[in-house]
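Sharing in case it's useful to others searching the archive later.

Someone asked me privately for the predicted structure of Putative germin-like protein 2-2, so I'm posting the question and my answer publicly. Question first, with the sequence:
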Amino acid sequence: MYLVSDSSRSASRRIRLDRVVPDSADILNPDLNVGTTNAVAIASLSSQNPGVITIANAVFGSKPAISADVLRKAFQVDKNVVEYLQSQF
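And my answer, the predicted structure tokens:
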């Protein structure tokens, strides 16, 4: 699991089975299943004022960068496209 804050800082951690992860409104969570079985995610959004996160900056401009392989799989594009997009931030 990658956590990207509104300041475009990222971190990663592995989530165990049956783990619940509450998030604040100012964090973007792109996830990657590194296991060999299917994963299930249930997301719920609820806030009167969730704030603003520029998705492109958070995803392609995070420090340290989100793995190009993770982004390639998520967006189903060539690695060169991901590297080009990351170079724009």
